[in-house]
Amino acid sequence: MDRATFACSTAFFRDFGNSSPRALPGGHVDFIDKADSFTYSDFFRDYLIPNHPCIFSAKFTEDWGSRKNWVTWDGKPNFEHLLQKFGEAVVPVANCDVKEYNSNPKEQLPFKEYVEYWREYIRNGYHSSRGCLYLKDWHLSRAFPEQDVYTTPVYFSSDWLNEYWDAVAVDDFRFVYMGPKGSWTPFHADVFRSYSWSANICGRKKWLLYPAGQEEFLKDRHGNLPFDVTAPDLRDKRIYPRYSQSKPPLEIVQEAGEIVFIPSGWHHQVYNLEDTISINHNWVNGCNVAVMWCFLQDELAAVQREISQWKDPIDDWHLQCQLIMKSCTGIDYKEFYNFLKVIVENRISVLEKGLDEESSSQNNSKAAISTLGMLHAVFDLKRTVKVLSSLSANEDFRKLDLTSLSPSPEALLQHLESAIDTALL
Question: What residue stretches are annotated with the JmjC domain (predicted)?
Fold first, then answer.
């Protein structure tokens, strides 16, 4: 991360502290014990900006409804309560015993059928002819907004992904995971190279974490990442020629109630050591939006290489590349522009009009800006102007039909820079 751009104003830099972030000792991940002595400023300075992982103690989640109601007295999933609340829901379920490309195949199941399977799986000594099924990526908060499940900790409240997708009302990046002992997630980095946080409602997880860049040593001779980073094949130099150059992963055992913060671009593999339920968010903000933009450029370049032989026969080749990229990643350059526009306009609105209590209570993004303060909004805009300037000058972006974008990139940049100048007067 370019730490110099952090100092968007002298006042803002003083507000968040002028000390250097702690170095991350080999094999060690910081454990944050007490909520009352750990501020957002501490998290921003020591973990978001330097892109370091950390663990929050169970004290940070003890008041959540899910911690109180989804768990039995002995720390197991409270199946009866969950069936009462969500029995009729349909949920996405992955088979951990089957590899499909570089992930596990998914199916949609009624939640009550999945719970029935889970109970039988436990009774049979954690075996089933159906395989090890893992409920993953369930948008429970979107489907049941009235339920008292959890509250997002303030440290993760600057969340542009969910701010944008809430605004366009088509998706979100808030998930519930539920699975038996032995269920797992193959080696991956999170969507758009976002940050993620994961809170265990009950159960324990083991995480294998590789800092950003280490994944390059784990690729096979064709440039593909492994499905399972613990597989013996990785030691075969004929298949994985650079594996010996990789460092051992950071290993975390996450207990019930604890929250793990996964930095942007860190690849990881995760195992449920017990029957486990977790809440997971992916999020992007001003600290890592440049990483997201670099990821999108890399993805487009990969698509262009794959279909380069069709460049001359196809008149709208550049548009086709965008379509393929969106089908693979979930976003293209024009939507990325709209994503930045929503973030920018929300903050400019706050800077120009201020925050009133009623509007902030009705708008999650304005509530977050209110909580973090006006100078944080300025920081967001300073980071966005760099990425938006790069996008606007990007050759592949300029080849697209931009007439549908309103305002135009030039006008939005002008408004953005003017708002920053005015705010810093």
Answer: 141-300
Q: Which residue from 162, 150, 163, 153 is spatially nearest to 261, judged by alpha carbons?
A: 153
The rounded distance, in Å, linking the Cα atoms of 155 and 168 is 24
Whole-angstrom Cα distance, residue 199 to residue 26?
24
Q: Where does residue 182 fall: left (phi above 0), alpha (psi -120 to 50 degrees), or beta otherwise?
A: left
Rounded to whole angstroms, how far apart are CA atoms 73 and 84?
18
Please give the full DSSP string across 79-120, using - where no structure is assigned: HHHHHHHHTT-EEEEEETT--BTTB--EEEEEHHHHHHHHHH
- Burial annotation 353-385 (CB, 10 A radius, 16+ → b, else e): eebeeeebeebbbbebbbebebbbbbbbbbbbb
Per-residue pLDDT reduced to its tens digit, 181-211: 999 999 999 999 999 999 999 999 999 999 9
Residue 198 pairs in a beta bridge with 260, 280
pTM of the model: 0.91
Q: Which domains does the chain have, with CATH numbers?
A: 22-211+247-283 (2.60.120.650), 288-424 (no CATH)
